Fold:
Amino acid sequence: MTQVPLSQILEAARQLCGLSVLELWWAYVLLGGTASPQDVEGFLAGALHPDRTQYDRLAQALNDRFTDRGQDHPVPYFESG
Amino acid sequence: MSASVAETTRGSPEVTASLAQLAELVLSEKTVDAVLELLVSLAASSIPHTDAASVSVVRTGHFETSNATSQEVRVVDERQYLRGQGPCVEAIRSGRHHNVVLAGEEGRWPDFVAAARAAGFKATLSTPLRAQDRILGALNLYSRSEEAFGESDAEQAGRFAQHAAAVLANAIDLTTAGKVNQQLQEALCSREVIAKAQGILMVRQRCTSEEAFDLLRRGSQRSNRKLRDVAADIVEREDGRGRSA
Structure:
């Protein structure tokens, strides 16, 4: 992946698509995510580091939101780095 | 609730009957709006000297009339919210009832008095709807009589408001619980569809669960569709195959 930390990518995308942390967490849960809202907040702040499974579900939740807005998948997945 | 109703409304059969009706509603009807609708109707019909009634509620920091016995009452209430002045607004803010004869109040609340008079009202009684430490709104009674609401009217309104606030608080809790339940159902359904699609892909591709998720997200990326929709298609196609086999 790029040199940009994963947390920054997720947080920038979250702000760009206008989801609250809780909304993002819920979308992630719908995709099978299992971390708590506090953990997701930690991922976004860079205090915690998501593994590949958690990261890809968060990225997918954000990309689904972008898809709703007529945009393609701008958030990179774990393996693409 | 029935014991406390009997206790607090002794000697007032009209209000007792009204509150019993209200208590029954809790068992059969779970929407806030239905509770409030009945509340204003019962208040207007069972509390003496009352010609009209409304319920003001506080929602996301704003006042609004959720239910009223007539349109003219809504107009009078609205005038209070607009100016942030009037007995109903004061009752909610202070948590104390405001029993007011309009004559003599022109200086304090000129807009409200003008609007109320235009609608033919001459006295008003606003009682806060208090549930524990929360003020949920106010029960507003309007009268066309020159006389103020009496002490016993105010007491009845207070008792009525006390029970009505409890019903309202329960109704709000039930509505919240209903929404949470709906969201949980949505989550279960979504996760089940995705898990099924992963299972189908694991069998077909002889891969792990995470590799199956990767296939789904690649499908989502390729078609620029939401992952859940891609998963639903896979499950639907598999179900179709099962039916035709």
Q: What stands out?
A: Helices of chain A lie at 6-17, 21-30, 37-45, 52-68. Chain A has a mean pLDDT of 88. The two ends of chain A are 2 Å apart (CA to CA).
